[in-house]
Design a protein that fits this description.
The structure is a homodimer.
Chain A (H helix, E strand, L loop, with lengths): L11 E4 L1 H14 L4 H16 L10 H10 L10 E5 L3 E9 L1 H19 L1 E9 L5 H6 L6 E7 L21 E5 L7 E5 L8 H8 L8 E2 L20 E2 L10 H15 L8 H4 L4 E7 L6 H16 L15 H13 L1 E4 H14 L8
Parallel strand pairs in A: 3-4
Antiparallel strand pairs in A: 1-11, 2-3, 4-10, 5-6, 5-10, 6-7, 8-9
Helix pairs in contact in A: 1-2, 2-4
Chain lengths: ~350, ~350
């Protein structure tokens, strides 16, 4: 994450992983989510916070989920049903449950199929937000597999190249690939210039939007720094690349791929009509292609080669997707996770609302 | 393709598809490629030219292939061997043959596996350039499948974000998805800011490189327009996005995914060590997820929705990946393919060198 999005030191309150995890789990349970699913959901969110992916941890997402349970949009104990299945594929109706706990269970089934046949894939529909796609892709790594996770966003916020009306979500995509000694490769990105909920984060820490990140109602990319808008667009997000000259047709195409595999292939139609999330999950068994030991050693060579690249003269180091996240995780497991004081206050307020009894301040 | 890369009207010579295809096929055959493979290879290249993908047609690529056969780097009649196989996957040794004709045969096997099990994938090694990844992905569409093709480039020309030494190729990736009435979705892009061989094309038509496309030996992105360099780097290509602020870490990660699936998963190690191309090909059977008729109707709605998007006030229209290419194909099947006069001259020269007898000028 860019430095500007980080919580300023004076606004930080550090909370241990165990404490925030228990508090989060208790919130899910208080809203009717069964114990097992509440555990999974908390693990997903706290894993994101540990790895420094604040946009997809408890700071931004949890209050939306709470609102979803409270207004009936989310089913706390959903009936999850397989609606179509082959040797390698399945389509799942998530019963209106939160993707954060539905997706890991589906990913387990995908992994079992890949174990048997070499490849496995699932589409999931009638489901809420998946938290962050990286977590679900990462589940494959423990089985010597490569994991892939995509999600459509359930809302249109991203413009096609040259368009003035949004047609895609932020449509994230993640691949996770195990290595041997090096921290794994975990590539987890939105296909728009920035994640929509980075607006919230930016507002909280007083950051600005960069040139080429959004376009106004006329569809023309705004090429100056600007304040975060107060309400839901316009300005709309530009696809990865920003302008056509700078390759935005590539980000637009990649976002469309997510729409096709995550939404149209599930049977709910294009994202701009479905207006509800859809997932595509996949696992590749490494042994179906090459010996996993050799593969992971080669991944070490690859990742070390990337990290050891001579940096540009104005930079300190080169990293690869997943490296900073692994470093953040090691550090935060010891020092705790820094939350903005405003997030802690929200936890305190919701505790009193739900009659919960936890303390996040030492 | 950006307007600037197109051949100027006064430099154009129009040649019919049949004429250029026959000439190209005769060149392959004269170099020892069997008739069937020569046909496939010509079809791939001329398909790219018809679709307006000049970077990957005969103008740039054919002379490299000819040189490859002449100096022994490419085997004209390779022995292609399957070295590993499961229900859904195969790994193929291309016998040193040109990927342009090896990949379509492997893709047929991938499609057969997907037909039976829902998904199919292959890795291919010991093989030359694949032409353009889009062609191979598109083969899946006739079988009501989604196709995916990736290739590593066999050379390091693209910088990691913040790096000063190239570690990746241009590492292209393509997805092809059938529709019903609308031209299909064919997303076929390099994961660097531009294709390396667009340098050649730009030089031929006198175009310049855009700000944020390349970085100098110091690794710092060059943010002014510049002339095309005369020799092989530096300047090196920047990953899709250009600068970190503009999302180059996403292009860098996507290029790394291609390296992992195309090179490391084949068993030849990272691209920057293998320094030879590797392919990853995949097919998803649509019926394993949803009724193909419904899927293709939904694709029509999606693609029409994208193309009908209100354009930005400074733009004429919104397109989607594959639409302009389909329009170009329709037009060029009638009017012929416009080649730069310099390309025609090369065809004439190679004809005399190989003792061939064709005429490309009316």
């Amino acid at each position: 994450m860019l430095e500007r999005f980080k919580v300023a030191e004076e606004d930080r309150i550090y909370v241990t992983e165990a404490t925030i995890n228990a508090a989060t789990k208790s919130i899910f349970q208080a809203l009717g989510v069964p114990e097992r699913e509440a555990s999974i959901a908390s693990d997903v969110l706290i894993s994101n916070d540990l790895r420094g992916i604040e946009t997809h941890g408890v700071s931004n997402m949890l209050r939306n989920y709470v609102a979803g349970y409270q207004d009936g949009r989310l089913t706390p104990a959903p009936e999850v049903v397989i609606t179509r299945e082959t040797e390698t594929t399945l389509v799942v109706d998530g019963g209106g449950g939160l993707g954060v706990h539905v997706a890991p269970d589906v990913m387990d089934k995908v992994i079992a199929k890949a174990e048997k046949y070499g490849l496995g894939a699932a589409c999931v529909t009638n489901v809420g937000h998946m938290g962050a796609s990286g977590y679900h892709a990462m589940k494959a790594m423990d089985h010597d597999m490569i994991g892939l996770a995509m999600s459509t966003s359930g809302s249109s916020v991203t413009l096609p190249t040259f368009g003035a009306i949004p047609r895609l979500g932020t449509n994230p995509i993640a691949w996770a690939v195990p290595a041997n000694k090096m921290p794994p490769f975990v590539f987890d990105v939105g296909t728009s210039q920035i994640a929509r909920n980075k607006f919230t984060l930016a507002k909280r820490v007083g950051a600005k939007l960069e040139p080429g990140w959004v376009a106004g109602a006329d569809g023309i990319p705004i090429m100056e720094e600007m304040d975060v808008p107060d309400q839901f667009g316009p300005p709309w997000l530009l696809p990865l690349g920003g302008t056509r000259e700078n390759g935005s047709h590539k980000g637009y195409g990649l976002g469309s791929v997510v729409d096709i595999l995550g939404s149209i292939l599930t049977g709910i139609g294009p994202g701009f009509i479905a207006l509800t999330p859809g997932f595509h999950l996949m696992a590749y068994k490494i042994d179906a292609f090459v010996d996993p030991g050799k593969f992971k050693d080669d991944m070490d060579v690859f990742l070390k080669g990337l990290a050891d690249t001579t940096p540009a003269t104005d930079q300190e180091r080169v990293v690869y997707p997943g490296l900073l996240e692994a470093e953040s995780e090691s550090e935060r497991k010891i020092s705790g996770i820094p939350y903005h004081v405003e997030v802690i206050e929200w936890f305190e307020q919701i505790a009193s609302e739900l009659g919960l009894n936890y303390s996040l301040r030492n």
